[in-house]
Amino acid sequence: MNVLIIGANGQIGQHVVRKIQESSGHNAIAMVRKEEQKAKFEEQGVKTALVDLEGSIETIANAAKEADAVVFTAGSGGHTGADKTVMIDLDGAIKSMEAAKQAGVKRFIIVSAIGVHHRDRWMNSAPYYSAAKHYADVWLEKSGLDYTIIRPGGLTNEPGTGKVKVAVDLGYGKIPREDVAAAIVASLENSQTIGKSFDMIGGETLIEDALKTL
User: Fold this and answer.
1) CA angle, 211 as apex, 2 and 187 as ends, to 5°?
2) Where is the NAD(P)-binding domain (predicted)?
3) Is 128 among the residues known to form the active site?
């Protein structure tokens, strides 16, 4: 399976690329927006696509033309304002969905955020972030794509444990980025995750076994 990772240079995206490259039967296509990022992945033997997520749907679709699945891990980051959040986390996500459809790619996995499907749990400090994630998820659910929406809790850079807790609704908790990446790759290999949206935090159940409970 060829997998286009949008946001490949992000913290989760880099883990996803590495895990896909280490897996058997999968190849990563790292979508990045800077030449130096492209060079970095190419030095690692990873196929790349140089595309600005704020560009056209057609350029994203061109990057996806050889893909069997799209993983959207892009985000504007915690240091940008509401404008960039809307353009990347919302509009960028929706353009990526439209591009996948244009390229004939059915499988689409998106990284969202815990609890954003409930307005009363939106972040008071940055409600625009929660709104962007929420409406990107809603759009994906209505897109006709074979989607999986993963809503992780607070992200850490601790080493992954390979164990998580998943459910449609969970209380707030933390999870290593590496475990989110592992869950993405496991979801690609598990058709039972198609059409599913779920919260995910650190837990005591192996990722593959946790996904089977959905």
Assistant:
1) 10
2) 7-190
3) no
Calculate the alpha carbon distances from 21 to 18, 28, 114, 168 in Å: 5, 6, 27, 30
Higher local confidence (pLDDT), 23 or 103: 103
CA 152/CA 207 separation, integer angstroms: 13
Q: Which residue range(s) make up the domain with 134? A: 2-211
Give the chain's domain count: 1
Token code pair at residue 20: 């896909």
78 pLDDT above the threshold of 70? no
Q: Give tens-digit pLDDT for 113-144.
A: 999 999 988 978 789 999 999 999 999 999 99
Of 183, 36, 39, 42, nearest to 28 by C-alpha is 42
The residues near 213 (Cβ < 8 Å, ≥ 6 apart) are 166, 205
CATH number, domain at 134? 3.40.50.720
pLDDT tens, 39-75? 999 999 999 999 999 999 999 999 999 999 999 999 9
- Res 124: pLDDT: 81
In angstroms, the Cα distances linking 204 to 79, 161, 164 are 33, 9, 6
Tell me the pTM. Answer: 0.96
180 contacts 210 by C-beta, under 8 angstroms: no
Choice among 129, 135, 147, 172 that is catalytic? 129
Q: How confident is the model at residue 194 (pLDDT cuts 50, 70, 90)?
A: very high
